[in-house]
Structures are given as C-alpha cells and as structure tokens.
Specification:
Layout lengths: L8 H5 L7 H15 L9 H14 L2 H14 L16 H21 L8 H8 L3 H13 L3 E3 L5 E3 L1 H10 L4 H11 L12 H9 L2
Antiparallel strand pairs: 1-2
Helix pairs in contact: 2-3, 5-7, 5-9, 9-10
C-alpha cells in the first residue's frame, strides 16, 4: 500500500481497531445506506466507494491482518498537520496545540467510546512534540476542565471540552480540517486539503 494512498479505515468507519466483525458489519451497513448514491438526501459516491473498500478489507481476516500491519506502522508516524508552522514550538503555536489535542481526543471519544483516552506518549508520537513541550498545554486544558485523566492516567475529553470543540469548529480552519480528515480516514495522509466546506470555513476564519 503506497504511503500517500493510506486511508485509516477505522477512522473512516469511526470504530475501534479492535472492533469485532459484527460491529464492522453493522456500522458499514448503516453508513452504506446513508451514503449510497441512490439516497437523494445524503448520497455521496466517493464516500460510498471508500466505505466499500474499507469493508472489503476489514471483513476478510487475511486482508485485515495485512492492513493492520500497515496501520500499525503508519500510526507510529506524526500526523503531518502538526508539522506545519501553525503548531510551532513556543507561544505562537500554543493555542493551536490546544485545539489539536482536543480534536484528537474528540475523535477518539467518538470512534472508541470504550477506550477514549490517549497517553502523553501517544500525543508525543502523533503531534511530533516532546512531552516537555506539551505539559503546559495539558495543564491549561485540565485547568479549564476541557480534559481529565482516567484510571489509566490517559487523557480524555470532557463534556465541556466537546462543547468547546463544537462551538469553535466553524471559525477554526485547522480544527475543521483535522476533524473532517478523520471522517474520511485521511488524517495521516499527505496532500489532502479537505472538503469544499473546509475551504469555506477557512474563509470565515477570524
């Protein structure tokens, strides 16, 4: 699977990488009905075809095992959005780092409600920041009750944090791009600029 073609099928389906076959089938059936081209309200040919690719891969034990090997290697790499100047070390990138962490936890809570937390080590890997550069950010988010720590000492988003993400989403281009990329499974994929709606959100950014 070429690097620039990698799609996170688990993010696409909004399910855990540990999901059982029954869950994969049930979620796929629901989403395929929603995005089927014959659906006059929510039909989306591209999304429908992508969902079918995901299901064909994850529903076959052999293909899923092969895919999971690529998935494991790919998720060890930083997400490219966090390597841009918008997230530079220091005060200039601090607000965006907060938004980035909340988006990651928001997606995690949606896709894996049974295990919604991320460790500091996982944030280091996904965001390409040393933990020393994230501690102030985490302190701020905890002080404002946007995140808390669970029984495993992982960070999880709170209801207040979810409200903050959804309230600020229309005005924040980076947040919108990150969340929309997760919906299409492309949050680790290079060269993906998001949807026309994302461009519109960017024009509205203040």
């Amino acid at each position: 699977m070429p690097e620039n073609e990698f799609i996170d099928y688990y993010e696409l389906l909004q399910i855990s990488p540990n999901a059982e076959m029954e869950t994969i089938h049930r979620v796929f059936k629901m989403l395929a009905t929603r995005y089927h081209p014959d659906n006059p309200e929510t039909g989306d040919v591209d999304r429908f075809l992508l969902l079918n690719r995901a299901y064909d891969t994850l529903a076959d034990p052999g293909r899923r095992a092969d895919y999971d090997t690529h998935y494991a290697a790919h998720t060890l790499k930083p997400m490219e959005v966090f390597e841009t100047k918008d997230f530079e070390i220091g005060v200039d990138g601090e607000a965006n780092r907060r938004m980035g962490i909340l988006c990651l936890l928001y997606n995690r809570r949606r896709s894996d409600p049974d295990d919604p937390g991320l460790s500091l080590l996982e944030f280091e890997t996904m965001m390409a920041f040393a933990r020393e550069h994230l501690l102030f950010t985490m302190w701020y988010l905890k002080e404002h009750d946007f995140v808390r720590m669970d029984e495993k000492s992982d960070y999880v988003i709170t209801g207040v944090g979810v409200d903050y993400v959804e309230t600020n989403l229309p005005q924040n281009r980076l947040m919108y791009k990150l969340l929309k990329a997760a919906e299409t499974g492309s949050s680790h994929t290079s060269g993906r600029e998001g949807t026309p709606q994302a461009a519109e959100a960017g024009r509205q950014e203040t």
